[in-house]
Structure formats: C-alpha cells, structure tokens
C-alpha cells in the first residue's frame, strides 16, 4: 500500500479557512502513518478496549461488513483494526472469534503480553437483539479466550445512540443541558441488565441526546464507576475531532472502517495497514 491523502479542491478554495483546513489534513496524515495525537490516562494495566460495528448495504445486495478496532496501549492512542464479510443484512456477527483473535494477537505482539481485561463496545444492536443474538457473540468471545488460552476477563457493552431518554440539569427554575460527563444509572434504567446513559458532548442550541450503555456481560472485576469513567475518557480519543464524540472512539473508528470497506473498497484491507488508522 502507498500512503496517500486525497484533498477536494473545494475544501481548500476558501483562503480565509485554508490554514485551519491544512492543519487538520496534516493531523489526519499523521494518524494514517501511525502517529498518535493525544492520549488519556487510564491506569489499568493490560486493558484493551474494542469497538465493533456492522455495515449493511442499503439494497442488501452486497455482503455486510464487520469492523473491529482495538486499543494497543494504555493511553488509548494507538489502534489496530480488522474486518470481515458476512451474509447481506446479517447483524449477528459470525466472524467474532476470527477478528477478535487477530486483535488480541496484535496486542500481544505490540506489548509482549496479552490483555488481561477487554472492554468490548458493540454498536448497532437494538433492544430486540439484546437476547439470543448478543449472547451468541458473548459465547464466541468466551470460546476464543478458552481456545487461545488467553487469561483475560471481558465486558460486553452494547452502545445505543438513538434513544428517547433525556435528562436535564435544573438551574434555579430553568432546565438546561447537563454538562459533558454527566450520567444517570438509576431509577429509569433497565431491569435485568446493568446500564447507564452518558452525555459526552456539549450542546448549546439543542437538547443534548445521551448515549445508552448496556452491560450484557462483565467479569472483569471493574466497578461500574470504572467502566463509566473509561467510557467517557474514550469519547475524547477520536482523532478526527479535537473535542468529544457521542460514542467511545474505538466504536467511531469501527463505524468509519466498516463504512469505507462496505461503501467504497469492497475488499479486506492489506494486513500492513492493520496497525494504522488509514481509514480516517
């Protein structure tokens, strides 16, 4: 593969904005070549955070694309990716063991040891799929760790962006948006699963929409507070935006990769690109 960056002429045609645009392009090229722009301090050794998403062709003629992106260091600033194909329109992931196995091996190669804790954030799952479909994927992860003799505990967390729940901050007699980092994990939450809603972005003009996190399986020994703090810190690690994003960065990266492969390239990326954010 030859490193490249395509720039739309219209993007740099405005002289007033050209300096800002060029700076962002340089940062993007840096990431594509393996650079790390910033990091978050997460003092949990041998922790790997994984984002998972599935892209479906709108006409359901092409195969669906499964993408996984995993952190490779303690500051969540280096990532590796893997993707695969499955039947058109299929949401449940059949290639979970293969892709996650590649990322665990890559983590061991980068750090000399395998991860001992894995936080897997799964996007694209509605309430109706949290039953047998998600539990099948959980079983696949347990089987992988057993077969590869990796002594890792894991947490399987469903991430939902499009939800109806909202909460507000009461200032005097006015309701305002809660500050970024605000969360709610009681009273209105689900029965049967540990879950919480988290506001990670600032919105001044509209009502901010939180993100719903549902912990389907967890044997890591981490407290709910730890998982919530890690989830919020990960929203700062998306290198295409200098602020926070709505979902943890590994999930946003996985969405970006799945879309690029499904919409444009229609082929598995070269293995040499595995440890670079080439899809930004």
> Can you summarize the main beta sheet?
8 strands, mixed
Please tell me what the overall shape is: globular
Order of helices and strands: HEEEHEHEEEEEEHH
Strand order of the largest sheet: 3-2-1-4-5-10-9-8
Broad structural category: alpha+beta
Task: Give short descriptive properties of this protein.
alpha+beta; 27% helix; eight-stranded mixed sheet; 10 strands; 280 residues; 22% strand; 5 helices
Question: How would you summarize this macromolecular structure in one to three sentences?
Answer:
By secondary structure, the chain is an alpha+beta fold. The chain contains five helices and ten strands. Helix 2 (96-111) packs across helix 3 (132-147).
Account of the protein in words:
The chain contains five helices and ten strands; from the N terminus they run αβββαβαββββββαα. A hairpin with an 8-residue loop joins strand 1 (47-55) and strand 2. The chain has helices spanning 18-32, 96-111, 132-147, 224-234, 249-265; strands at residues 47-55, 64-71, 79-86, 117-123, 153-160, 169-171, 174-176, 183-184, 194-198, 211-218. The chain is α+β, with helices and mostly antiparallel strands. Strands 3-2-1-4-5-10-9-8 form an eight-stranded mixed beta sheet, sandwiched between helices. The protein has a two-stranded antiparallel sheet with strand order 6-7.
């Amino acid at each position: 593969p030859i490193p490249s960056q395509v720039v739309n002429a219209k993007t740099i045609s405005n002289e007033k904005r050209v300096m800002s645009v060029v700076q962002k392009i340089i940062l993007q090229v840096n990431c594509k070549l393996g650079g790390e722009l910033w990091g978050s301090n997460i003092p949990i050794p041998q922790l790997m955070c994984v984002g998972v998403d599935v892209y479906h062709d709108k006409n359901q003629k092409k195969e669906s694309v499964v993408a996984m992106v995993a952190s490779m260091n303690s500051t969540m600033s280096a990532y590796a990716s893997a993707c695969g194909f499955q039947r058109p329109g299929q949401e449940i992931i059949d290639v979970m063991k293969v892709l996650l196995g590649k990322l665990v091996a890559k983590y061991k190669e980068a750090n000399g040891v395998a991860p001992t804790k894995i936080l897997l954030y799964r996007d694209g799952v509605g309430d109706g799929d949290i039953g047998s479909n998600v539990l099948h994927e959980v079983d696949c992860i347990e089987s992988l760790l057993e077969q590869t003799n990796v002594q890792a505990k894991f947490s399987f967390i469903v991430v939902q962006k499009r939800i109806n729940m909202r909460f507000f901050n009461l200032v005097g007699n006015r309701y305002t948006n809660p500050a970024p980092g605000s969360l709610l994990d009681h009273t209105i939450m689900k029965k049967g699963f540990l879950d919480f809603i988290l506001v990670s972005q600032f919105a001044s003009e509209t009502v901010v929409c939180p993100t719903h996190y549902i912990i389907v399986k967890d044997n890591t020994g981490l407290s709910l507070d730890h998982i919530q703090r890690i989830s919020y810190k990960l929203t700062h690690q998306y290198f295409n935006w200098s602020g926070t994003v709505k979902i943890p960065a590994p999930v946003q990266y996985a969405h970006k990769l799945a879309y690029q492969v499904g919409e444009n390239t229609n082929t598995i990326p070269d293995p040499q690109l595995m440890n670079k954010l080439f899809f930004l």
